[in-house]
Every structure is written in C-alpha cells, then in structure tokens.
Amino acid sequence: MIATSRKILAAAVGGLALLYGAAQAQQAAPPSAPATPPETKTFGDWDVRCFAVKNGHPCDMFQQMANKETQQRILSISLAYDPSLDKHLLQITVPLDVSIQKGVTVQSDNYTSPVFKYRMCTREGCFVQLIPENSFFEGLAKSGADGKINIVGDNGKAYGLQFSLKGFMAAHDDMVAQARAKAVPAAKGASAKP
Questions:
Q1: β-pairing, 105-108 with 158-164?
Q2: Which of 15, 34, 82, 131 is the most exposed place for a label (fewest CB within 10 A)?
C-alpha cells in the first residue's frame, strides 16, 4: 500500500513537473517558433490556464506576484487537478536565499497548513511541489480574501509573502471542470502512441 502511494505521488509530482515545464516552454519559446498560448480565464485574482498538452492535468489555476519596481517575481502559486487520481497538485515558487530546512506554510485568517518542504531550487527560485491533503483546499475555501506564504530567509528572518484568495473557489471549480473535460488519462495516452 505504501509503495503504491509512493508511486502515485511520484507520478503526480512528475506530472506536475511536466506541466511546469510546458508552462515554461510556452514562456521561453523562441520568437521564430509558433507557441500556442494557453487558454486563459480570470476569476478575481486567479487565472485558469489550459495548455495544449495531452496529459492527466492540462489545466491549472495560477497567481503570480512581482516587485512593482523591478518586475522580479516574488511568489507564484499553481494548483492543478488530476481527475484520474482525484488529487490536486500544488506548486509554490519563492525567491532564492531561503532556509531550505524550514520549508513554507500557507496561512489565511482561519487556516494554517502544515510545513511544506522544498523539492528543489533552480536559478528561477525554490519550489514546493506536492499533493496536498483535501484540508488544504477546504481551509482556503473558508478563508477571507487574503493569504500569505510564510518563508524563512537564510538570515533566519521570517517573511510573509502576500497573495489573494479573491476568486479562489470560482477559479478552482472552473479549473477542475476543464481538467475533467480535457485530461487524457495516462493509460489512454500511452496506448494512443504508436
């Protein structure tokens, strides 16, 4: 049972990495290559994006915060849904120079997540990638309009990176509905290949 759970988690996190890679490829495509932009809808402060990829979770809901002066990304949050697993996939990206050992927590007016560990860091930032428990979504759904990602810097100082929950549930419901309509289950996608 534990081995099966680990395989499911590894497959889902690997799939999330593929979704992230698809998103990065969309943004980093050379001007000469025709890139297919994602279909995007906005709900409050959240964007629901569906990419032209054939996998188990082609859509996500996304929010990014940047420094107003430098336009450097401070925080991004991506939530995807895999209908075949009936699970959500979460990716949080924060700046470098964080205390890796401390992880992050997600907090709102009436909810605080467990500590989420970093999966990796690249020059783009440090990433949390995981399959959260349902209580994560239930807690945020019942919250007010503001949330924050709590991180600890290498200097030991705690920081709260603000994000908005405005439109969270509407974006979530739309993203799940689109994912169910557009997802290609792994077994089906594998058998379709020559």
A1: unpaired
A2: 34
Q: Residue 132 phi/psi, 5° resolution? A: -75, 160
Q: How confident is the model at residue 36 (pLDDT cuts 50, 70, 90)?
A: confident
Average pLDDT, integer, range 130-142: 91
Q: How many CB atoms lie within 10 A of CB 174?
A: 18
pLDDT for 53 equals: 85
Enter the pTM of the model.
Answer: 0.78
Q: Quick one: pLDDT at residue 13? A: 45
Q: Where are the beta strands (DSSP E) in 67-131?
A: 73-82, 87-94, 105-108, 120-122, 125-130
CA angle 22, 174, 191 (to 5 degrees): 50
Report phi then psi at 18, rounded to 5.
-65, -40
Instruction: Spell out where 99-185 has E strands.
Output: 105-108, 120-122, 125-130, 146-152, 158-164
Burial of 185 (0-12, 13-18, 19+ CB in 10 A): middle
Helices (H), 29-141: 134-141
